[in-house]
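To the wet lab folks,

You asked to see what we're planning to order before we commit. Fair enough. Below is the target structure as tokens, and below that is the sequence we designed to fit it. If anything looks off to you, flag it before the synthesis order goes out.
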């Protein structure tokens, strides 16, 4: 699933930035709330740049948006999601984008607005017709002489 991503932006560089922000949060609050969250990627996320799941201690990022905006611009999103997990752990509750989360972001010197600023292009979903053609093409490539 992450094969495409690995070719363009190494998974390791996203993980390195997650670790960077996690360490910055730990230092800024002088509180260790546990290990750095696991990093996952999604090819499906079109309008959401990232999500954080407290239960699984995982942050997930959109490969589409990451590739479009590039690593440098995406860094704020990595910090944003990692800060959600940190804040929830710190306060032992879901903080959302409340003042506690804003304060956590401010402590590491980052903007605490809720949404990313990437322009999100809504790509049309595959129509049934396109899906049918693709499935026939795949079948043909699997069995070219059938
Ligand atoms: Zn958020």
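Sequence we intend to order:
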């Amino acid at each position: 699933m992450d094969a495409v991503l690995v070719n363009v932006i190494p998974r390791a560089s996203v993980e390195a930035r997650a670790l960077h922000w996690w360490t910055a949060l730990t230092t800024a609050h002088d509180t260790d709330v546990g290990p750095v969250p696991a990093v996952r990627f999604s090819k499906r996320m079109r309008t959401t740049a990232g999500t954080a799941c407290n239960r699984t201690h995982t942050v997930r990022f959109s490969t589409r948006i990451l590739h479009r905006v590039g690593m440098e611009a995406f860094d704020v999103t990595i910090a944003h999601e990692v800060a959600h997990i940190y804040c929830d752990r710190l306060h032992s509750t879901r903080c959302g984008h409340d003042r506690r989360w804003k304060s956590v972001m401010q402590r590491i010197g980052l903007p605490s607005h809720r949404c990313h600023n990437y322009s999100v292009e809504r790509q049309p979903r595959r129509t049934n017709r396109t899906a049918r053609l693709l499935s026939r093409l795949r079948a043909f490539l699997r069995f070219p002489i059938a």
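Structural context that might help your review: Residues 80, 84, 97 surround zinc ion (CB under 6 Å). Helices lie at 3-8, 11-29, 63-69, 71-91, 99-107, 128-142.

Thanks,
Computational group
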